[in-house]
């Protein structure tokens, strides 16, 4: 195995394991996720409950597995929103330049200077909490980074000969932008998408931890952490699994992003 | 001097822009603030009276001009929940958050940059790789989780600090430090991790420069080359990152104050959001925007101090 | 042995290899050269032929992933057998180096005067007042106007020629026995280039320093050097006194380099260029490395790389046809 590919492989392995868990959870969890069992509250890990039980006697492993659906779903949709709008805005800004570019980049810079969690919080404070708004909020907060990366690619490529040739041939601007330039500037966008996925997972967890993200009964790792904190003196092990899972998923996508960048830079 | 004035002007413009955006955003929210303050059971007459008192019935341009005027006089309106001026509430909470932020920043700079230097010095050898790997993991750990773990270890198991609550500096400086150090660590960890990476990459980039070879050819050893030549050059890109770090710290504080139940701006903000105290949210967003703009202004100033090439006004 | 030819630096069978993730690259493949006291010796070759790496190995500042074997004898000490820290005393005091691009080789954030002074800090026990005076003195010597003002300037505030004078001042401030000048005039325009060459000649005359002058331009080398080594793909292919090399080049590569010198009357005419490209250091060829580009190549050149053939007493070339073309 090539030494330079190590980041990529760690990323792929981590994500695959978690993805597998997510897929399994669609069909099977050891216990029903919402089954409340008053007799088995705060159980430590055992053969019956591998990761113990929570304050309602629910099986933590089952809830963790179910929570991975939320994490992947939020990450995927939020990154899609962020990348589609970000690429669109960045492409327009970079390709056409001028005053439009100036204004867009000012706004993008201003947004990037802000704590992204603050932007998401502002959004949910205006439009309310819940799964849909969490995803939109995280999606919006990831637009600026996609816009900036796409723009820099377009600014570089619009001066290149193949674009000039296409213009001379009379190819429409829209076609030049998305059929000619975009495929050539895609790899940094893919890297950003991977990192963006990691950030989305972190943001969802943070919002849900604050009680302003995913609402019960939907399981969320962030929410589980906030529940675990209340009962930390009674069952400290409950606080471990959700945190580890968030970390592993974020780590996976960060490694993946680094790995893709390594390959790109050494090609 | 002209450069600073220009930057100052841009700074004021940004704050104005942000205030306009927040004004418009909160203008389009459905539901009247008066209604949410009184509750749905309130009588029509009560509602009318309060709306008039709050000036909600005035036309848009009057409200906008009042908002902008308030901006310069520091009057950001009145919190619905607490019925106290918003700026008073914020100023009351600010010391906690600022202490927290300063402590976190100190940790980030004092731990992150030296570790980055060490990691760069070892390059691709084991200690360098190890530090990189640990920092990669550090960036992935959510700060509120490390906060919970810290509370558990140091508060519950070891009983070194009492979790939750804040002792004002004026009352008991050591107590204040003790109540802030764990949350500061939790906020700092991800940023320490990322600044290690930035420092390492920046130094390793600089090590490839010709001036490093010239310095070596003078007979300097590697350590002096690092300290006397490379470090200052490598710090320039790191200063850019400091703006991002500042945003991370503030974002981290919002969450971590919740974890440690610290009475800071972040906790106030979350309370304001959950109780839909919109004037308070609006005022706080503006406050935070102002802080960030000021930080970025200072970062620009630091730039011009450290890099003689941009004293003329443009970055190289 | 007479005083004139007394040897200062003697390199024997120097080989330099780099370890990279893609494999081992041999940048220098066994070269020997000699620099006498007060001599100006030229090393000529296209970029990538190993001349800069050779210079760095004499300075003992090769990158970590490199291995150098052979011997570099400097006034009786084998530099290669010493550890990096053992050569630090020598570096900057006895041997110093001038780099090609003075903009990138000077620290952009340090006043140029301080950068000269740094060398004195390393190698003398002068106090700061005397160091300052010494720096002003040396700045005056290399022809920098208004030393006290220039001392406080940053590299980007100076012109290319002035920056190169600073680089030279750094190199000579400790009065070294040997100065290695790596393409010191390449980045400069022609008039400034002539001034810098004159300055180097003056330093050689007045301070008795030997100079190794590295360049890709044989025309410049002709103006300053007495002995020239021609390097190609990690090998020395011809060596001799500069006049003989010009009047009677023995290696086809040297002939090409001479033809490639732009002449004053060549305005409007196409510049001569040796066909083909320098082989990558990753390629290994059993025969003569220049064979693929050589107009005179015969079948034998593909299989064998000849040793040095003597053309005259002090003139040799690694070519089967040396002296016959």
Question: How do the helices and strands line up, and which of them pair or pack?
Answer:
The complex is a heterotrimer of chains A (267), B (316) and C (325).
Chain A: H1 6-27, H2 60-96, H3 98-113, H4 116-127, H5 131-157, H6 161-168, H7 173-184, H8 186-209, H9 221-230, H10 240-266
Chain B: H1 2-27, H2 33-38, H3 44-54, H4 60-73, H5 86-122, H6 126-140, H7 143-157, H8 173-206, H9 210-217, H10 222-259, H11 265-274, H12 278-306
Helix pairs in contact in B: 1-4, 1-12, 5-6, 5-8, 5-10, 6-8, 7-8, 7-10, 8-10, 9-10, 10-11, 10-12, 11-12
Chain C: E1 7-20, E2 23-36, E3 40-44, H1 51-59, E4 66-74, E5 77-78, E6 95-98, H2 102-105, H3 112-123, H4 128-141, H5 147-151, H6 160-172, E7 178-182, H7 190-207, E8 210-215, H8 218-224, E9 227-232, E10 235-241, H9 242-247, H10 252-259, H11 299-303, E11 309-312, E12 315-317
Parallel strand pairs in C: 3-8, 3-9, 6-7, 7-8
Antiparallel strand pairs in C: 1-2, 1-4, 4-5, 9-10, 10-12, 11-12
Helix pairs in contact in C: 3-4, 3-6, 4-6, 6-7
Describe the protein.
- The complex is a heterotrimer of chains A (267), B (316) and C (325).
- By secondary structure, chain A is mostly helical.
- Chain A has ten helices and no strands.
- Chain A has helices at residues 6-27, 60-96, 98-113, 116-127, 131-157, 161-168, 173-184, 186-209, 221-230, 240-266.
- In chain A, helix 1 (6-27) packs across helix 10 (240-266), helix 2 (60-96) packs parallel to helix 10 (240-266) and helix 9 (221-230) runs antiparallel to helix 10 (240-266).
- The mean pLDDT of chain A is 88.
- Chain B has 316 residues and is an all-alpha fold.
- Chain B has two domains: 19-73, no CATH class; 87-306, MetI-like (MetI-like fold), CATH 1.10.3720.
- Chain B is built from twelve helices and no strands.
- Chain B is globular and about 85 Å long.
- In chain B, 40% of the residues are buried.
- Residues 312-316 of chain B have low confidence and may be disordered.
- Chain C is an alpha/beta fold and 325 residues long.
- In chain C, 31% of the residues lie in helices and 24% in strands.
- An eight-stranded mixed sheet of chain C has the order 6-7-8-3-9-10-12-11, with helices on both faces.
- In chain C, helix 6 packs parallel to helix 7.
- Chain C is globular.
- The two termini of chain C are 34 Å apart.
- The model of chain C has no long low-confidence stretch (mean pLDDT 86).
- Chains in contact: A-B, B-C.
- The interface between A and B is large, with 39 and 45 residues.
């Amino acid at each position: 195995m090539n030494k330079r590919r190590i980041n990529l492989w760690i990323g792929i392995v981590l994500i695959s394991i978690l993805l597998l868990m997510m897929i399994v959870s669609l069909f099977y969890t050891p216990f029903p996720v919402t089954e409340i069992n008053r007799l088995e509250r705060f159980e430590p890990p055992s053969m019956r409950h591998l990761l113990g039980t929570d304050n309602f006697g629910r099986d933590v492993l089952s809830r963790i597995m179910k929570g991975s659906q939320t994490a992947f779903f939020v990450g995927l949709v939020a990154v899609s929103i962020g990348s589609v709008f970000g690429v669109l805005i960045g492409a327009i800004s970079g390709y056409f330049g001028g005053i439009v570019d100036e204004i867009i980049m000012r706004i993008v810079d201003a947004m990037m200077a802000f704590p992204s969690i603050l932007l998401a919080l502002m959004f949910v404070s205006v439009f309310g909490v819940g799964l849909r708004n969490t995803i939109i909020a995280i999606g919006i907060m990831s637009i600026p980074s996609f816009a900036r990366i796409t723009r820099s690619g377009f600014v570089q490529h619009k001066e290149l000969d193949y674009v000039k040739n296409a213009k001379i041939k009379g190819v429409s601007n829209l076609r030049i932008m998305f059929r000619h330039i975009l495929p050539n500037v895609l790899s940094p966008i893919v890297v950003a998408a991977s990192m963006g996925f990691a950030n989305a997972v972190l943001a969802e967890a943070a919002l849900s931890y604050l009680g302003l993200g995913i609402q019960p009964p939907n399981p969320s790792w962030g929410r589980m952490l906030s529940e675990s904190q209340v009962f930390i003196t009674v069952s400290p092990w409950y606080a471990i699994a959700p945190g580890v899972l968030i970390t592993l998923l974020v780590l996976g996508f960060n490694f993946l992003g680094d790995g893709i960048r390594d390959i790109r830079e050494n090609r | 001097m002209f450069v600073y004035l220009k930057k100052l002007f841009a700074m004021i413009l940004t704050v104005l822009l942000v205030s306009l955006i927040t004004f418009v955003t909160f203008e389009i929210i459905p539901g009247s603030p008066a209604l949410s303050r009184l509750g749905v059971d309130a009588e029509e007459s009560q509602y009318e009276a309060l709306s008039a008192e709050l000036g909600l019935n005035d036309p848009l341009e009057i409200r906008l001009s009042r908002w902008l005027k308030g901006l310069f006089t520091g009057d950001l309106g009145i919190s619905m929940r607490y019925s106290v001026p918003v700026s008073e509430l914020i100023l009351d909470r600010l010391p906690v958050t600022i202490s927290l932020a300063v402590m976190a920043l100190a940790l980030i700079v004092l731990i992150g940059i030296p570790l980055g230097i060490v990691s760069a010095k070892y390059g691709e050898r084991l200690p360098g790789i190890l530090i990189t790997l640990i920092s990669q993991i550090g960036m992935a750990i959510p700060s509120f989780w490390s906060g919970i773990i810290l509370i558990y270890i140091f508060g519950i198991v070891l009983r070194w600090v009492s979790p939750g609550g804040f002792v004002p500096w004026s009352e008991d400086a050591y107590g204040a430090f003790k109540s802030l150090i764990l949350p500061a660590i939790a906020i700092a960890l991800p940023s320490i991790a990322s600044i290690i990476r930035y420092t390492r990459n920046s130094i390793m980039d600089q090590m490839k420069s010709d001036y490093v070879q010239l310095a070596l050819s003078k007979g300097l050893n590697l350590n002096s080359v690092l300290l006397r030549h490379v470090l200052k050059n490598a710090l320039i890109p790191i200063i850019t990152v400091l703006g991002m770090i500042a945003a991370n710290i503030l974002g981290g504080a919002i969450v971590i104050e919740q974890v440690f139940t610290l009475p800071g701006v972040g906790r106030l903000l979350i309370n304001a959001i959950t109780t839909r105290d919109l004037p308070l949210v609006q005022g706080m967003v503006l406050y935070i925007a102002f802080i960030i703009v000021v930080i970025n202004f200072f970062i620009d100033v630091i730039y011009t101090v450290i890099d003689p090439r941009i004293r003329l006004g443009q970055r190289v | 042995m007479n005083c004139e030819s007394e040897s200062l630096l003697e390199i024997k069978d120097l080989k330099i290899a780099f370890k990279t993730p893609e494999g081992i690259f041999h940048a220098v493949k066994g070269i020997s050269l000699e620099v006498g006291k007060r001599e100006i010796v030229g090393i000529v070759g296209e970029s990538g032929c190993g001349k800069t790496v050779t210079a760095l190995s004499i300075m003992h500042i090769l990158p970590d992933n490199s291995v150098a074997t052979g011997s570099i004898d400097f006034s009786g000490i084998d530099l290669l057998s010493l550890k990096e820290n053992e050569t630090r005393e020598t570096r900057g005091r006895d041997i110093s180096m001038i780099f090609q691009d003075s903009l990138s080789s000077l620290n952009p954030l340090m006043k140029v005067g301080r950068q000269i002074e740094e060398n004195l800090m390393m190698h003398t026990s002068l106090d700061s007042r005397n160091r300052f005076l010494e720096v002003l003195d040396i700045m005056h010597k290399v022809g920098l106007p208004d030393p006290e003002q220039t001392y406080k300037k940053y590299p980007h505030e100076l012109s290319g020629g002035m920056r190169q004078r600073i680089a030279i001042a750094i190199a000579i401030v400790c009065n070294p026995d040997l100065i290695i000048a790596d393409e010191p005039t390449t980045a400069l325009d022609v008039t400034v280039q002539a001034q810098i060459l004159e300055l180097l000649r003056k330093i050689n005359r007045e301070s008795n320093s030997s100079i190794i002058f590295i360049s890709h331009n044989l025309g410049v080398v002709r103006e300053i050097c007495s002995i020239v080594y021609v390097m190609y793909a990690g090998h020395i292919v011809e060596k001799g006194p500069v006049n003989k090399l010009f009047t009677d080049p023995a290696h086809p590569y040297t002939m090409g380099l001479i033809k490639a010198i732009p002449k004053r009357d060549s305005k409007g005419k196409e510049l001569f260029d040796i066909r083909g490209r320098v082989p990558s250091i990753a390629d290994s060829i059993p025969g003569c490395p220049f064979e693929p580009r050589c107009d005179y190549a015969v079948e034998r050149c593909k299989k064998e790389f000849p040793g040095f053939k003597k053309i005259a007493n002090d003139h040799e070339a690694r070519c089967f046809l040396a002296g016959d073309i």
